[in-house]
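Chapter review: from sequence to fold.
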Amino acid sequence: MDLSTVNNNVYIAGVALLLLNIGSRHLMGDIGKFLEGVLSHDVVKKIVLLALFFVATRNVVVSLVLTVVTCIIIYGLFNEKSKYSLVPVDGDIKKYILKYYKGNEGWS
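The token string follows.
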């Protein structure tokens, strides 16, 4: 089997990235408190997000754009503490959706 076929397969890369994202939580259980504190810093989280996007896209500009857009969505629009938040203050999104959804048979 030619390894270049495996190396260039986008489906294998996608599955590997998904496994990396899911499995990284379990790998983090083995690190010490200092490194855990470093990795929980906001700037480091954004750098990790940028790295994930870069691995997926192999394009620095696209990775930067995706990182900025994701940060705006996560830290701005869906953060209850942000003044631009779209999430209700009490965090009960189900009640918020039901308020604007008519015919809510499946939402109870």
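Two observations follow directly from the output. Helices lie at 3-7, 10-27, 33-39, 42-57, 60-77, 93-100. The first helix runs from residue 3 to 7.
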